[in-house]
Amino acid sequence: MSTYKGRALGSLGDFGCYSFHETKNYSMGEGGAILISDKKYSDHAEIIREKGTNRVQFHRGEVDKYTWVELGSSYLPSELNAAYLYAELENAQKIFDNRMASWNAYRERLQPLADAGDLQLPYIPAECTHNAHMFYLKVADLKTRTALIAHLVKNDILAVFHYVPLHSAPAGKRFGRFNGEDRYTTSESDRLLRLPMFYGLKLEDLEFVCSKVREFFGK
Ligand SMILES: *Cc1c(COP(=O)(O)O)cnc(C)c1O
User: Fold this and answer.
1) How far is residue 108 CA from its own chain's centroid?
2) Which atom of ligand 1 is nearest to the CA of 20?
3) Which residue has its alpha carbon closest to ligand 1 atom 11?
4) What is the DSSP letter of 47?
5) Closest atom of ligand 1 to CA, residue 32
6) Is the pLDDT of residue 48 over 90?
């Protein structure tokens, strides 16, 4: 439920992936979906997710027995997971509206701190619409962020940093490389802090969070 130049995310390329991990707007605990733009890849995808078998074709009556035809694994969600997701998707607009109201409330209440230069708020490019997945702040540096997290935690507010650059991870160092000069990646990652954001976040709790952020900056 977010767009780039008017097109829904997930529909831009040949393949699109959605995550329904527990941290996402619409969840099934663990799981996801792949969107395939060209039908010719669908049969193949069905085989890969069914352990490399043509079981789906068998169930459709297209083959008389099912067998192993490709590499694959067990990528299917259970029906219990799917039922949980289905209920969330039926309520997708309601979930979206609720998160967006929280997102907008955060932005409105924290705008004065941004105007005063204490922090930066999320920036949404004109060609994009977002789905209020997260609300983050960017503060001056790592030291400020560490102190702000401590201040929030002291007030029973769970605030987390996010996205440690992949190239700095042990596996990233082994298998990857940084392309170009690291002018922004590490420093932006050090400055970023996420505020509580979930369906059903109460406005009074959101206002409490904002008041503690203001307090941290002496306002
Ligand atoms: C989205 C997300 C995951 C799961 O992603 P998948 O693509 O479903 O594997 C795990 N951890 C965090 C913090 C995430 O944001």
Assistant:
1) 22
2) 8
3) 23
4) H
5) 8
6) yes
* CA–CA distance, 5 with 186 (Å, rounded to integer): 28
Question: What is the fold, at CATH topology level, of the domain defined by 92-216?
Answer: Aspartate Aminotransferase, domain 1 (3.90.1150)
pTM to 2 decimals?
0.91
CA 55, CA 63: separation in Å to the nearest integer?
9
HSE-up (13 A, CA, CB side) for residue 184: 1
Residue 21 CB less than 6 A away from ligand 1: yes
Smallest CA separation from ligand 1 atom 10, residue = 21
CATH of domain 3-90: 3.40.640.10
Residues 6 or more apart whose Cβ sits within 8 Å of residue 45? 34, 36
* Element spanning 193, H or E: strand 192-195
pLDDT above 90: residue 162: no
Question: Could you tell me where in the chain the CATH 3.40.640.10 domains are found?
Answer: 3-90
